[in-house]
Amino acid sequence: MNTVLIVEDETHIRRMISIALKAEGFKTKESSNVQDGLVLALKEKPELIILDLGLPDGDGKEILERVRQTSSVPILILSARHSENDKVELLMAGANDYVSKPFSIKELIARIRVLLRDITPVIPEAERIRKFQDLNLDMNSGVLIFGKTHVSLTPKELLLMDILTREVGVFINQTVLMRTIWGNYNSEDTHYIRILVSHLRKKLSSLSTDQFSIETSAGHGYRFVFNHSE
């Protein structure tokens, strides 16, 4: 049974979320401030954290930044802040998803299930090790291997790399990527995919700066290519 930590200072919202999650088979822990929320996040080690930003003793981002120092637990931001800049900043800081208030409880639960599903992406047994010239992708452990260098991927980076390398050199539409990785609820939030691609590009660059890359084409999407084909 997955445990979800809810850090939210508005009692009625916190209780509503808790009741709905328990009805779906989850266990919940609750906090109304930064200090207690951080203690619970580090001590209880929940499978997912729902995090409000406007807390009475500080900004919920403090919890996000502290937890990200030691854990990759999915963190879903719940906030009344609506600007795209706020969303991008939080995603860059390590948040996995962002839901704006007011929100639908059904959508919230759907997003939670997607985040928990992404912890262990489903990969066909026959494709555990995918090889491309000198680059190997270990689908089981989520590791890219180039020579003696290894780089670990997050679940979403692994899923993106999986999609892009099924057909090397073929453009994948941005909407298709969004819906496959985040589901229909986030299909219009294109900044999500831009951030994810940016993170994956940095990891690929740490392996080699000129052997392979992710290309972008307006109207076509993204593709994985080798820059020096044999």
Automatic annotation (TrEMBL):
PROSITE patterns: OMPR_PHOB (PS51755), RESPONSE_REGULATORY (PS50110). Residues 127-226 bind DNA. It holds the Pfam family Response_reg. Residues 127-226 form the OmpR/PhoB-type domain. Keywords: DNA-binding, Phosphoprotein. InterPro entries: CheY-like_superfamily (IPR011006), OmpR/PhoB-type_DNA-bd (IPR001867), Sig_transdc_resp-reg_receiver (IPR001789), WalR-like (IPR039420), WH-like_DNA-bd_sf (IPR036388). The modification 4-aspartylphosphate is found at residue 52. This is Response regulator.
